[in-house]
């Protein structure tokens, strides 16, 4: 609310950008406040009714801890964090009135949900005469900027990546702004973090997550530093082997914006130059999926290839539950699900095997798998999750061909040949030293394989043959 008598007050509205580094909105708000000898408050508003679907359980756990860490980081800069819950329009308007706020600043949202939030916020702020200043963003490049020669969005990754890496390199990241002053108490009322009820209580299933992760910007930096000093050099050759700690594990930090992709790009190039490109190419998939989501907002439920809406999916909840619980009798699939249960994360190679098993061996809808991972992954992402599920299923952009059906045993033999990963997560599947792949019939406490892969493959190919591309 603009009143010339009140001291200048800028509000930073946070969403999926829970950091202080490379944060255009926070930097600009502090600049404005310094210029006007005023103050800055940050606000996070949890409006679940506005979400297209509620956050999954693992994401809620992450969000709680990420907000706790962010409150401390902001406090160091002299910016209090106010938490609110409920209707975004009402809450934002109330915060602006209570704090006599002159301007609301946010990093521009690039997912359909965040853009919807921005439209709602503008509606709420207009009658108050308070502008919403949206700049920057959470991607390396604006999603409508990378287009083919004929002005269309890319549907194939390789040319997209070529265009991005050669012609649209991300802007340099901004440093964390200097503190505005010592920590101050908020002049706007807010809720406690506990009252947002983001954590699981009965039962508290998050013990494994607590052991595995440090949500927040400091955790992201620690993860990034460890990766830059260690695995990045062997990333290209080892990233497919789930027993190796060869990938960055940065995905949940990127998902919640604790690390910006611009900072990531900059840090990798500064330390490793062109040797970092195999890694950045994978980060390019994140960008690609977000650009796809921008063009196809229904990507989480609707196949990008329309003929797949007629695919003869099966409807077997009992088999789906065996898959979810890691009881398929295929150790590599079950190990992936157990890793997910315990840590909220699964190695990328194993995600592909597990997903292929659901859609091709079991012939169950990819949307079920997408929903399952949405609930259980700490990095559950509105773009990467459906993008990858559509890719594995053969119905997405630049998707794996449907006739390429992963053989779980061969995948295990190739990428976990000594069974280290499988034994770690499914110790009952074989005694140490057993041949994991031959031991199926002698296993005691572990289920027999729930299907014959060869027969399942034939069934999947027959189902595919029933589809004709839409004219
Ligand atoms: P690294 O190999 O270190 O890669 C660095 C970053 O690049 C990742 O953090 C991620 O942001 C990005 N990236 C890497 N591979 C991919 C990819 N294939 N697609 C998109 N971005 C990628 N990733 C998510 O972030 N959220 C999801 O919800 C998600 N769901 C998936 C579901 C399925 C079925 C599959 C097959 C993959 C999914 N992925 C998802 C992609 C990928 O598995 C994870 O990004 C990766 O395993 C995260 O681990 P990392 O950070 O160590 O990756």
Short summary:
The protein is mainly alpha-helical and 471 residues long. The protein is 45% helix and 6% strand. It holds the Pfam family DNA_photolyase.
Bound molecules: flavin-adenine dinucleotide
Q: Give the strand content.
A: 5-15%
Question: Taking Cα atoms only, what radius of gyration do you get, to the nearest Å?
Answer: 24 Å
**In whole angstroms, how far apart are the ends?**
55 Å
CATH topology of the largest domain: DNA Cyclobutane Dipyrimidine Photolyase, subunit A, domain 3
The CATH superfamily of the largest domain is DNA Cyclobutane Dipyrimidine Photolyase, subunit A, domain 3
Structural class estimated from helices and strands:
mainly alpha
State the helical fraction.
Answer: 40-55%
Number of DSSP helical runs: 19
Q: In what order do the strands lie side by side in the largest sheet?
A: 3-2-1-4-5
How many beta strands in the DSSP annotation?
Answer: 5
GO molecular function: deoxyribodipyrimidine photo-lyase activity; DNA binding; FAD binding
Pfam families: DNA_photolyase (PF00875), FAD_binding_7 (PF03441)
Cofactor: (6R)-5,10-methylene-5,6,7,8-tetrahydrofolate; FAD
Site (Electron transfer via tryptophanyl radical): 313, 366, 389
Description:
This protein is mostly helical. The protein has three domains: 9-138, HUPs (Rossmann fold, 3-Layer(aba) Sandwich), CATH 3.40.50.620; 139-172 and 217-295, Serine Threonine Protein Phosphatase 5, Tetratricopeptide repeat; 306-466, DNA Cyclobutane Dipyrimidine Photolyase, subunit A, domain 3. Helices cover 45% and strands 6% of the residues. It has 19 helices and five strands. Strands 3-2-1-4-5 form a five-stranded parallel sheet, sandwiched between helices. Helix 11 crosses helix 16 and helix 14 crosses helix 16 (384-393). The N and C termini lie far apart (55 Å). 46% of the residues are buried. The mean pLDDT is 92.
